[in-house]
Amino acid sequence: MKKTIGIYLISFCLLFFLFSTVYYFSYRDLKQEQLAKAESSESGQEIEETEAVRAGQTDAPVVTDEMLYIFQALDPVSGLLTETILPMPEEYLGLTREQLSERIKEEGGRESLVSFSSSRLVVRNMETVDPLEYRFLLLLEEGYLKIYYSDRKDVYMETYLTEDELPRSEVEALRKGYYVKDVGELYDYLESITS
To answer: CB–CB of 9/3 below 8 Å?
Structure first.
């Protein structure tokens, strides 16, 4: 009986010593890394941060059907830029930024890739646009976001969203006017800029 208690006691002491040693060295390495970062930031050097990537994933984001697809049409004559939220084209799914850029060039149209992130994709077409094809116009006026019918005469909805509450990337487009085709696209867009 005394022999088994002694074995348990020695095992406990060895495990305690092992875990304490691992903890000490981990803590020491962490402190050294923090000191190195602090010294390099004081000297003006930037430290490159690396992100862990799950097995099977690539570093570059790819097009998914959850991304917001915004199609811009720029009228070269008037300079009017209209934007429409559309369903993601199936042929774009799974492509990286470089692959998508190549695909758009191969199509030979007047389209170009404007923005590509993990949450949204913006493609611009340089052809003329008829605002009458759209149902709504979102416009920043007097610091608030207002939604007009596309004729700009009647207000569909006045929102209480101020310019300060909107993403900086969207403010300029909303000052110029952002067209959407239907109610579904309108609410998808509003949800994307407020979340």
So the answer is: no
For residues 116 and 118, what is the distance between their CA atoms, to the nearest angstrom? 7
> In the chain, helix, strand, coil percent, each to 5?
40, 25, 30
pLDDT bucket at 120, cuts 50 / 70 / 90:
confident
**How do the domains of the chain map onto residue ranges?**
68-125, 132-194
**Which of these, 89, 83, 86, 115, lies nearest to 188 by C-alpha position?**
86
Q: What is the pTM of this model?
A: 0.39
Residue 109, C-beta contacts closer than 8 angstroms, at least 6 positions apart: 125
Rounded to an integer, what distance in angstroms lies between the CA atom of residue 26 and that of residue 129?
61
